[in-house]
Specification:
Length: 367
């Protein structure tokens, strides 16, 4: 008989976390709350837990995942994850999405080879291994506190462990409520495309948006150059794709801008507003935003106005070397018109448009 803990009856969940961690480290199974239902898990490095989980019938194979405390943990388990897998894991996790990665193109790191043999095969189908990073806070805390990733079986709130013929855990922790009635969406990721293996909480449309290319234009204050580049490129791209600007996300494109010395909420400069209004572009709703780590790490293309902007980003985030570059294909700085004449703004706009035409041609060439 499993010991049960009800989180809504506790003033502080710390002791419950410790209890769950102790059971897992002892090689036992625990059942933790998940935002989609429950998560039955045991540590990948404990023979007794792996043996208990391995008794599960083949009909439950699709429930098998490797549960992670944080998206970054996957780098310890997958040696060469495809860019699409990296993108979706960064944008979907923590959250109700299971990502399956093709092992033939990615491979596994040495950590998995140290697991028991049955654990090494956990969550692996012909299409690859399944990983999951739950968003439920209690489960996250437990996974952060244990010594290894967990092997898991996922179920919805309406499903019963015993009816499914799953092992009885030594401890079951209950949340007050389950956030979603649907299961996590299971997504198979290839090198450049994904397939929804099982529909769930996150829709195909939302996944298409999350898998899209994010273009970030960077200047200093995010009131002149980068807002103009963002707005002009959005219009050019929408025209090229034959869609409205508000449909770009559904075509796999997100276009934004930010500034290295910007603060939140400043409008576009009056000169930028007036100039782009002549092109049928309305910048009146623009609000500046600063460049942040979270923003940078979620972008595929980071296009800076000057070499100094590029160098400033790379000095702090050298790992983004493949994503950060000058907007100009000739590696020239886009001059800052702030505080200058209308003629300077006009010249700046022309330089930006010339650069964006090269960028659009580059997208076509890579399509």
């Amino acid at each position: 008989m499993a010991r049960e803990i009800f989180l809504d009856q506790l003033a502080n969940a710390h002791e419950a976390v410790q209890a769950a961690v102790a059971e897992l480290e002892a090689g036992k199974l625990v059942c933790l709350p998940d935002e989609c239902g429950w998560n039955l898990l045991g540590l990948s490095t404990r023979e007794s837990a792996v043996a208990a989980l391995s008794q599960v019938g083949r009909e439950q194979t699709s429930r098998q995942v490797v549960s992670l405390a944080h998206p970054s943990v996957v780098s310890d388990l997958v040696s060469h994850p495809p860019r699409l897998f990296q993108k979706l894991s960064a944008r979907c996790w923590p959250g109700p999405v299971v990502l399956r990665v093709d092992l033939s193109s990615s491979g596994t790191n040495g950590l998995i080879s140290q697991w028991p043999e049955a654990a090494q095969a956990w969550g692996v189908l012909e299409a690859g291994r399944a990983f999951y990073c739950p968003a439920e806070s209690f489960s996250q805390e437990v996974l952060r506190s244990v010594s290894a990733p967990a092997l898991s079986l996922l179920g919805t709130a309406s499903e019963n462990l015993e009816t499914l013929g799953l092992p009885v855990p030594s401890l079951r922790v209950h949340a007050a409520a389950t956030r979603f009635s649907m299961p996590p969406t299971v997504v198979r990721t290839g090198k450049t495309q994904f397939t929804v293996e099982r529909p769930g909480v996150v829709s195909q449309r939302m996944l298409t948006r999350l898998a899209g290319e994010v273009y970030l234009f960077v200047c200093t204050g995010n009131t002149c150059r980068s807002p103009m580049a963002e707005a002009i490129f959005r219009k050019m791209l929408a025209s090229h794709l034959g869609c409205r600007e508000d449909e770009l996300m559904d075509h796999g494109y997100v276009v934004i801008s930010a500034g290295l010395a910007a603060y939140h909420g400043a409008p576009a400069s009056p000169e930028s507003l007036a100039l782009l209004r002549q092109d049928g572009i309305d910048l009146s709703s623009h609000e500046s935003q600063p460049v942040t780590e979270e923003l940078l790490l979620h972008c595929d293309q980071i296009l800076t106005m000057t070499r100094n902007h590029r160098d400033a980003v790379l000095s702090t985030y050298p790992e983004l070397a493949n994503q950060v570059r000058l907007l100009s294909p000739r590696a020239e700085d886009v001059p800052d018109p702030f505080g200058a004449s209308v003629e300077d703004y006009i010249r700046c706009r022309k330089v930006i448009i010339d650069c964006l035409e090269h960028l659009l041609a580059e997208i076509d060439a890579n399509a």
